[in-house]
Amino acid sequence: MTQTLLSLGHGYSAAALAARVLPLGWRVLGTTRKPERAELLRAQGVTPLIVGTDDIAAAVHQATHLLSSAGPSAEGDPFLPLLAPAIEAAPNLSWIGYLSTTGVYGDRGGDWVDEDSETNPESARGQWRLAAEQDWRALGGHIFRLAGIYGPGRGPFSKVRSGQARRIIKPGQVFGRIHADDIAQIVAASMARPNPGQIYNCSDDMPAPPQDVIGYAAQLLGLPLPPEEPFETAEMSPMARSFYAANRRVRNTRIKSELGVRLLYPDYKVGLRDLLKREQAESAQ
Fold this sequence. Notes:
The protein has 285 residues and is an alpha/beta fold. The chain is 38% helix and 18% strand.
């Protein structure tokens, strides 16, 4: 049987997984709410399913693997109310995954957390995520708690070049990060070793202050350091400011010990050097 991945809310991280499995002969079905994205998905080798027009329940029936990247709202998960019966009855489904966020741990004052740590999301978004996690686990889903995602097309270089980059200083603040290619390899490793209901932290080995990342990007580009701005007085959107409300370091031991994952980009310096190398190679073509 052809391995068939149904990707609900097919976005940036799921696209990295698709790029990993398509060359292996997999079939990938990806949902989108925007009909104009259909051609882009086809160009990537993904069969598009338009939410509201295509029969996604029928796609569940065909799938051997199902990954949901769709974010919840106050009303809950956008897919489960309609698809839970089809998922429970799916004849070929051998693996289910849900992309969540390390935000469910809440603020720890910079301390370390692992998958067994108590969850304590302060924000409404984090609470919605935790509720969605519980619903997907009830169906046997594997939960992937992602740190800040970066990768091709999602790096700091364009902002540094344009002069829009900012070094926001909040003493003691650190963030974890995870490269999209590492998300893909972690999820693929779980597919190869299913453990229904398991939770995996997806974060690199070096939580770091955000200003250090911007500074290193500027250094790689040979450009001056963007000026420092104190967090207290910096102009920021409520969304951006909310990310600074939580400060934690995330252990990633389980992906290594249980799934045998060796991170391709164990810290932001390795990741940024690779991103710049890719950019330079593409511009030389």
